[in-house]
Every structure is written in C-alpha cells, then in structure tokens.
Design a protein that fits this description.
The structure is a single chain. By secondary structure, this protein is of the alpha/beta class. The protein has helices at 7-10, 14-35, 37-45, 67-73, 106-122, 142-153, 165-174, 184-196, 218-228, 341-350, 385-403; strands at 86-91, 101-105, 130-133, 156-158, 179-182, 208-212, 231-238, 243-249, 256-258, 263-268, 282-288, 299-305, 307-308, 320-321, 332-334, 337-339, 357-364, 367-375, 408-412, 427-429. It has two domains: 1-327, ANL, N-terminal domain (Rossmann fold); 332-429, GMP Synthetase, Chain A, domain 3 (2-Layer Sandwich), CATH 3.30.300.30. The strands form five sheets. It has a nine-stranded mixed sheet with strand order 4-3-5-6-7-8-9-14-13. It has a four-stranded mixed sheet with strand order 19-18-17-20. It has a three-stranded antiparallel sheet with strand order 10-11-12. Strand 5 (179-182), helix 8 and strand 6 form a beta-alpha-beta unit. Helix 8 (184-196) runs parallel beside helix 9 (218-228), helix 9 (218-228) packs across helix 10 and helix 10 (341-350) crosses helix 11 (385-403). The structure holds 5'-O-[hydroxy(phenylacetyl)phosphoryl]adenosine. 5'-O-[hydroxy(phenylacetyl)phosphoryl]adenosine (DLL) binds at residues 92, 135, 141-142, 212-215, 234-239, 243-244, 301, 303, 323-324, 327.
Length: 433
Amino acid sequence: MERYYQEEIERASRDEMLAIQNEKLLKQVRHVWDAVPYYRKKMEEKGLTPDDIKSVDDLGKLPTLSKADLREAYPYGLLGCDLKKCVRIQSTSGTTGKRVVAFYTLEDIDLWEECCARAITAAGGTEEDVCQVSYGYGLFTGGPGLNGGSHKVGCLTIPTSSGNTDRQIMFINDLGATILCCTPSYAAYLGERMKEMGLGPDDIPLKAGIFGAEAWSEEMRHDIEQTLGIKAFDIYGLTELSGPGVSFECSEQSGMHINEDHFLPEIIDPDTGEVLPEGSEGELVFTALDKEAFPLIRYRTRDICSLSREKCSCGRTLVKMKKPKGRSDDMLIIRGVNVFPSQIETVLLNHGYAANYQIIVDRVNNTDTLDVQVEMTPEMFTDNLGEIEKRQKDLVDGLKSMLGLKAKVTLVAPKSITRSEGKAVRVIDKRKI
Ligand code: DLL
C-alpha cells in the first residue's frame, strides 16, 4: 500500500495545487520586493512591480537569478529577512570555485525536513525503519536534510555521515538498517565492499536506498539494486533551494515528483531564456514559494531535464521531472559534439562494467581527445592482450554509436580508480581554452 507523508498536498487536484501556488507566489514576490533590494532592482529594471504578478501565468515576466547573481550578492545580498531570524547556513563544497552559502530560518528548516520526510515515506519508510544517513554532514546539505526527514518520519536514524566504509557496513548489519541514504557512487562502493566480505543481497537487511546529489544512470540503479537487494530511489535538490527533497521518486521509479507546493518549476531554453512548453527538454528553473531567509525567484539550476504531468501509479499528482542528465555546465563539448558523462556511463554499464571510470578530455594539435578509462571487474580481469583489445574495441564501438564520436578506451585493473564517498569526480578536463 502506498503511503504519503502529507497526502492532502501530495495528491491535491491540479486546481487545488494552482490555488496554493498562486497565493504563495503573490505573497513571495511581495516579500522579496520588500526585503531584497538586489531583486527589487532587477524587477525595476524590467519595469515591474509586485502588482504585475497576478498568478503563476505571469511568472515568465519576472527576472531570473543565476549563480552569477549569487556570487555578486555574496554573502548577504539575497537575504530575505533579518539575520537575527536565521539559525543555520549550509554551503556547497565550492570545488569549482563557486561556493554558495544559503541561509535558513527555523521555519525554513522545518519545511525542508518535511520535503525529505515525503521522500523517505515514498521510499516505504515508516517509524518501524532504521535509516542510515551516509551523506556527508556539515556544510553539505545531504546529511542534515535526510537526518531531519528521517526524524520526522520517526525512523531510528543512524547519522554515520560519509566515509569509514567498513564501519558503515558494521552498522547496517548490527543495527539492521533498512534504508540507506547516500550518493549513488558511494552506494555502489558499499555494495562492492560488501561483496568482497562475502555478503550477498539476501544477507543485507537493507530494503531501500535514497540516492542522489549526482547524476546516475538507470543501469547503475539496476546494478545497485541487485548487489544490495534493495529498491533504489532517486532524490534531487540543491543547496540554493534548501538541499535534498526538492523532488523525490516514488514506487513507480520513473522520474521524481517535485514538491511543487514549495518549489514552482519551469523549463526554459538555456540559450534564449524563453519558457518552453510542458514536456520539452531544457534548463530547470525554480521559484521557492515559502523560503523566507533565502527566497530565490526563478533560479536557474543549469540542470537539464523535462517535466511530465502524466498520471502516476503511486497516486501522487505532484509534477514529475525526468532524471537530470547532468548540469548544462557538466556537458562536455568534444569536437563540437555535446557529451554528457551519464551517456558514457550508460554504455559502460550496458557492457557489463561497474561505474568505476574516469573521463579525460584534452586537446592535442588543436583537436579534442576523449579518453575513457574503465576498470575491468574482477570477473573479467585478464592479462590476455587479445581479449583486452577486443573488449576495448567493443566499448569504442558502443561509445561511437551513443555519442557519434570516436573515443579512446583504456581498460585498467580492478580497484585502480579511486572510490568516492560523496559526489564522484568523473571528468578531468585538461584543455586550456
Ligand atoms: O547535492 C543536494 C542533495 C543532497 C541532493 C543529497 C540529493 C541528495 P548541491 O551540492 O548544491 O546539493 O548540488 C546540487 O547536484 O543542481 C544537480 O546538478 C546535482 N544533483 C542533485 N541531485 C541530483 C540527482 C545537493 N538526483 C546539484 N540527479 C544539482 C542528478 C543531481 N543530479
């Protein structure tokens, strides 16, 4: 039987949801106009006042915000309330030099944790469950968000954070963890380690996993589900909008329901900014309808996906987003061809490899090169050169038909590519352009 955390919202009719969104949007635009001079100026530049926004149909008139705005307004320029009312910050790792600092009031945290509770409930979680949260705790939103959601559902929560893999496995088994929350790449690594310890899917108490924070393919889902003996659910979110729980998967596992009573989605053409009709693929843009401390309006996520309102067998009416292919800025342009790392992952997994690979892009004599290094699994490991060459050629052909591009493939020994405990680093781009 399907369970809901907030059934009246999760199964609201389209009219009910529109009424909620209209009311909240008008209030939020007024709030931001009054409290955030940075955004008010952007509205004034477009000749807009809050009176011009009468319903969600007027959303497209409003100016968008991007990471560049966040940088310009850093740290307090987009704050929507008195700093005294804020009780927490969270931040991105800033590995690409674009650190985001987001602020929360107590109420903001409460609503965020409710979103995570909806996700855990959709994955089958109840107060009977033991939920191990192996996302990083600290500035990263993964640990704190799912931790709060797990409390709200009433699960016994094991806050292991990421890392110390053997200890993770000990807790899962000793305390009978039934739900695991971590990045898909870390879930794959935990599975690999358990296999080495002789633990098969039937020996592991887990029944569900809530995996997100990075793009992952259907093939990777399948592998993790087989190894851990679980059902693996996707979860999406970003620090700018609170963290995990902006959207989550249900039993149908065919895209993530957006918590659209809090986060109003649009899809735009990333080049022109034009709003695209429902069903089209483009850049996901969100308006945070409730957030008080960090109330972003029309925030450009740079994630590429599409939305669908097709009826879902779980009974939820919340709009669904397809798995993002990756960020538009993760997209590699190689010899003029657009390549998402997730497409490469699909080819590798379809050929029986695990998701242990690295993509190295370089430019030699003014031509881009694409080198995919893939680990052989222990079962396929061999020193027979003929066999290795044949396997490499199969992958070159597979990549050629997926990408329309010739790549170099190098098979490497099992365990030679570093495992990730958080978000995996898949691409090394050495081009200096
Ligand atoms: O990754 C929040 C999160 C934590 C989500 C735990 C899910 C689970 P950031 O570090 O700010 O926040 O990174 C946000 O990660 O814009 C996407 O590009 C990517 N991302 C997040 N979830 C998914 C997902 C957290 N399920 C950025 N699939 C987002 C694909 C994802 N990409």
